[in-house]
Specification:
Low-confidence stretches: 1-21
Structural class: alpha+beta
Largest sheet: 7 strands, antiparallel
Number of helices: 2
Order of helices and strands: HHEEEEEEEEEEEE
């Protein structure tokens, strides 16, 4: 899972919105120009069929309504996100449960494995920020949280930084499931970026609030 940065999230969302608005606006303006040119240059002795003209006017109305609808939806989305922001203010200082990488600073990271109930072997796989596998740990087959201490098999601590986790579940010696486990991370701030509710963790990482699966 990639960490969302303010620049990356804002630029991507803004670019997508601008592209959509530009496309609709361009279509709208092009239609107006074409319809006007057609009316000005039609043969007076053989004018446009009234049914065709009505169809084009209906198309014009549809395009106009689409533009207005998109504007209204954008405004509603912004208002909705703002109202949610007030409700989410209580999240600040709480620990969110999300399937994201963990920021290791020497403090153990709490991981929720949640393997399939019929798994007879469960492994925690740890990768560093470069994607290199650094560790595999056999876990109990239950769904109790596991405290990853951030030390290798020799007891030496890993370097501070971001680590990703995976849960590999087996049954009868065969892999039956591979999943990203949820971890707990403290929320430092809740904000909106281009109408999207975002949680800022104490590590500085930003994630959509929709990724939050639990709070404590």
């Amino acid at each position: 899972m990639d960490v969302l940065t303010p620049n990356g999230l804002g630029a991507t969302t803004a670019a997508n919105t601008a592209a959509k608005d530009a496309t609709i606006g361009a279509d709208f303006e092009t239609f107006l120009v074409m319809l006007t040119a057609q009316m000005k240059n039609q043969d007076p002795l053989n004018p446009m069929d009234s049914q065709d003209f009505a169809t084009q006017l209906a198309t014009f109305s549809g395009v106009e309504q689409q533009v207005k609808t998109n504007d209204l939806l954008a405004a509603f989305s912004s208002q909705f996100a703002t109202s949610n922001l007030g409700e989410m203010a209580g999240w600040v200082g709480m620990h969110a449960r999300m399937a994201i990488p963990g920021d290791f600073d020497g403090t153990p990271i709490e991981i929720v494995p949640n393997p399939p109930v019929f798994a007879d072997k469960v492994e925690l796989v740890v990768w560093d920020s470069s994607g290199t596998e650094r560790q595999r740990i056999t876990l109990p087959t239950g769904d109790d949280p596991f405290q990853w201490a951030g030390v290798d098999d020799a007891g030496q601590p890993f370097a501070d930084g971001e680590y990703s986790f995976g849960i590999v579940s087996y049954a009868g010696g065969e892999i039956i499931d591979e999943a990203t486990p949820e971890i707990f991370a403290e929320i430092a701030e809740v904000r909106t970026i281009n109408g999207q509710a975002i949680v800022a963790l104490d590590s500085g990482a930003l994630y959509p609030a929709t990724l939050v699966r639990g709070l404590r």
